[in-house]
C-alpha cells in the first residue's frame, strides 16, 4: 500500500515503499555544484571524479547527470569501473583510469575507447607498444609523482620519458597530471612544493597542458587550475577544505526508519556490552541502519540523528543493522514504528557525521550501503 511520509517540514513529501532507509540523491544539486566549480575554474574546465561508484552515489546516474551539466572528462580509479561507465556516456565524453594501465588491459582499453593514465615508464612503453601493434593512434594521460609517492612517473624516470616522448610514436598525450597530497589544508607548504614540481615538469615537456587540482586544489587559486581540474567530493556536497565553510550544496540526504520504541527505567543497559546505562527513565528508539549500512561503529555513544531539528543522541554501541537513540527530548508518541529520522540532511551534514565518527566525509559517502531505498531527484 502506497503511503506518504513527510521527510521533514521543509521538504516535499516523498513516496514510501516501507523501506528501512531512504537515500535521496539530488541530481539537480549535483549539477549546480558542477556549475559552481566550472565558474570558479573558467577558463579552465571541470572534469569529474566518479570512482567508487561516484563516491557511493551511483555512477550510472551521477555521470550522465554530470554529462548533461556539461562535463566531458570522467575519472575512475579502476579499469573495470571504466568498462561499466563508458557505454553510459556519449562518444565525446572521455573516461580516464587513474590507477593506470595494468598488464592484460591494454587491448580491451584500446578497443573500449578508455584512456589510461600512464603512471610509469613501463606503462608508457606498454601503451606505445599497443598503439604500434594495433597500428592506431591511442590517447593517454601522463601522471607524475610530485611528492605524494603514490602514483605517477617518478623523478628518476622523467628524463628517459622525455626523450622517448620526443621520438615518433603513436600515442597522443592529452595532458599531464599530478595529485595534491594536502589540498585540504589551504596553507600547507606541500601544495606550493607540488605546484613548483608540476611547473618544472611542464617546462621539461613543452606543449603539454596541466590537469592538477582535486576539489581542494580548485580553492587554492588559479595557479593550481591548469586546463582541467578533477573534483570529486565537492561535486557530492563535501567540504574540500578543513576547516572551512562549505560552499557546496548538499547532494545526499539519508532518512532511516524507526523499527521500535521503548521506555526503559534508570539503570537499564543499552546495546552490546551494556556500554550505556540509563541514568534516569529514558525513551529510546531503535533505527534500522547500522555499521553494515555505512554508519561506522565508531559512532557508538557519539553522534546523533535528528527529528525535525531535535537532536537525538546515539546511545550504546552501533550494531550491524541498527542504532539506538535517545528520544526523550521529543514529546511522547512523536516517533512510532516506521517514522523516519534524519541521519544526513538539513540538520546534520556529511562533515558532522564524519567528525563524530572520527573519519572524513569521503569514507562516510563511499560506505553508504545498498540496503537503503535509493531515490534520485
Ligand atoms: C580521488 C581523486 C580526485 C578527487 O579528489 P577530491 O578530493 O574528492 O576532489 C582527484 N584526483 C585523483 C588522482 C584522485 O585519486
Automatic annotation (TrEMBL):
Binding site for substrate: 150, 320
N6-(pyridoxal phosphate)lysine, modified sites: 51
InterPro entries with a match to the protein in the record: Ala_racemase, Ala_racemase/Decarboxylase_C, Ala_racemase_C, Ala_racemase_N, Ala_racemase_pyridoxalP-BS, PLP-binding_barrel
Pfam families: Ala_racemase_C, Ala_racemase_N
Gene Ontology molecular function, alphabetical: alanine racemase activity
Residues covered by the Alanine racemase C-terminal domain: 251-377
Pathway of action: Amino-acid biosynthesis; D-alanine biosynthesis; D-alanine from L-alanine: step 1/1
Signal peptide limits: none
HAMAP family for this protein: Ala_racemase
Reported function: Catalyzes the interconversion of L-alanine and D-alanine. May also act on other amino acids.
Descriptive protein name: Alanine racemase
Organism: Rhizobium binae
Lineage: Bacteria, Pseudomonadati, Pseudomonadota, Alphaproteobacteria, Hyphomicrobiales
Amino acid at each position: 500500500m502506497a503511503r506518504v511520509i513527510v521527510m521533514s517540514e521543509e521538504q516535499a513529501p516523498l513516496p514510501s515503499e516501507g523501506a528501512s532507509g531512504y537515500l535521496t540523491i539530488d541530481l539537480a544539486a549535483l549539477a549546480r555544484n558542477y556549475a559552481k566549480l566550472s565558474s570558479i575554474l573558467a577558463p579552465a574546465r571541470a572534469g569529474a571524479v566518479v570512482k567508487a561508484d561516484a563516491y557511493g552515489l551511483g555512477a550510472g546516474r551521477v555521470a550522465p547527470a554530470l554529462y548533461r551539466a556539461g562535463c566531458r572528462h570522467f575519472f575512475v580509479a579502476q579499469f573495470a569501473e571504466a568498462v561499466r561507465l563508458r557505454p553510459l556516456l556519449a562518444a565525446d565524453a572521455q573516461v580516464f583510469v587513474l590507477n593506470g594501465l595494468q598488464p592484460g588491459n591494454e587491448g580491451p582499453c584500446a578497443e573500449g575507447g578508455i584512456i589510461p593514465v600512464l603512471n610509469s615508464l613501463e606503462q608508457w612503453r606498454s601503451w606505445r607498444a599497443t598503439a604500434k601493434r594495433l597500428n592506431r593512434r591511442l590517447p593517454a594521460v601522463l601522471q607524475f609523482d610530485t611528492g605524494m609517492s603514490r602514483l605517477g612517473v617518478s623523478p628518476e624516470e622523467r628524463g628517459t620519458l622525455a626523450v622517448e616522448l620526443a621520438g615518433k610514436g603513436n600515442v597522443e598525450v592529452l595532458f599531464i597530471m599530478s595529485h595534491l597530497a594536502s589540498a585540504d589544508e589551504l596553507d600547507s607548504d606541500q601544495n606550493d612544493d607540488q605546484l613548483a614540481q608540476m611547473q618544472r615538469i611542464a617546462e621539461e615537456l613543452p606543449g603539454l597542458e596541466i590537469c592538477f587540482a582535486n576539489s581542494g586544489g580548485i580553492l587554492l587559486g588559479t595557479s593550481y587550475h591548469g586546463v582541467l581540474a578533477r573534483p570529486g567530493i565537492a561535486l557530492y556536497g563535501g567540504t574540500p577544505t578543513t576547516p572551512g565553510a562549505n560552499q557546496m550544496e548538499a547532494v545526499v540526504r539519508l532518512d532511516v526508519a524507526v523499527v521500535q520504541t521503548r521506555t526503559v527505567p534508570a539503570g537499564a543497559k543499552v546495546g552490546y556490552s551494556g556500554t550505556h546505562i540509563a541514568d534516569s527513565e529514558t525513551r529510546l528508539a531503535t533505527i534500522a541502519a547500522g555499521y553494515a549500512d555505512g554508519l561506522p561503529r565508531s559512532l557508538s555513544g557519539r553522534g546523533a540523528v535528528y527529528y525535525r531539528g531535535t537532536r537525538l543522541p546515539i546511545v550504546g554501541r552501533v550494531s550491524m543493522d541498527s542504532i539506538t537513540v535517545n528520544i526523550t527530548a521529543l514529546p511522547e508518541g512523536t516517533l512510532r514504528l516506521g517514522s523516519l529520522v534524519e541521519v544526513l540532511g538539513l540538520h546534520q551534514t556529511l562533515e558532522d557525521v564524519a567528525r563524530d565518527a572520527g573519519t572524513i566525509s569521503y569514507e562516510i559517502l563511499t560506505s553508504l550501503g545498498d540496503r537503503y531505498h535509493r531515490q534520485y531527484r
